[in-house]
Amino acid sequence: MGSRARWWLLPLALIILSGCAAETNLLRPRGPAAAEIATLWWFMFWVGLAIYILVIVLALIAAARGSQRRASDLPPRLNERMFVIVGGIAMPLVVLLATLIFTVITGRAVVAREGTAELQIEVIGYQFWWEVNYPQQGFTTANEIHVPVGEPVEFKIRSADVIHSLWVPELHGKLDLMPHADHYITIEASEPGVYRGLCAEFCGVQHAHMYFLVIAQPRDEWEAWVARQQQAAAEPATATTQRGLDIYFRAGCANCHAIRGVTESAITGAVGPDLTHLASRRTLGSGMIENVRGNLTQWVVNPHSIKSGVKMPAALLEPDDLEALIDYLESLE
Ligand code: CUA
After folding, report:
1. Closest Cα to atom 1, ligand 1: which residue?
2. Strands 183-187, 144-148: parallel, antiparallel or unpaired by DSSP?
3. Which of 54, 57, 218, 268 has its CA 20 to 30 A from that of 302?
């Protein structure tokens, strides 16, 4: 191959390899279900590759023979029928049947068996974020799911509006969240880590930005996190944070966002994520941006500049009020 030909291959290779740099990787399984799915993926890949090579080789042989041959010395057509029977019927039948059997076996291995996991988590999909309930532990959070490592966890999932799909490629396959039915998926992480999850069913304008995190921790760390989440929100400790809490009510934040310990008496629908321990979470806007002061301020002032189409309206606040509100939200650890 000439050097000129190789040059244009380089950008092509880079484009292809850039797909491998993603934060999520189906082929880097970190849980038993994902391992089963990855094995099936590799089986299909190698079978597909073998068939592709076979077809290309046959095509090349045919092309080479065709060009050397004259019409007068064509070989007898005895083998053609056999070729069609083997290549066109028997081989596809064997390959597709083997793939079907492998798929069914994998599907059975990864299917959730209700009641086998000790820990149950409820996840409700919204346009465009995730409510996360821990019914056994008695608290609610959003967009960040903590699980103990090495233990199967039963996820009971449903949607509050349209169909979404929960997918953590390194831990499990996809499962749809339906508006009127509960679905179950058992997720287990075999290694501690932060695993990125996403919505895998088109659900509206911000479908592509509907992320969440699954954080797998050793049992004791997870229990410490649970104990923290079970507590009510921190009381305002300064005059500014007290003012921030007042703004939270006055500006209408409380209409959509619950804060345990302060909004029990308020009329709060689950319209937006629970903010009880907002400051303990890593991201804002359902995995959209890092949870740091500048981002939080921008999110409050104009969430649509970050994620157009979210239900949260922009808050029209005086600079002092805004600062106080952000101070208060940042105290919710
Ligand atoms: Cu929710 Cu796509």
Report:
1. 164
2. unpaired
3. 268
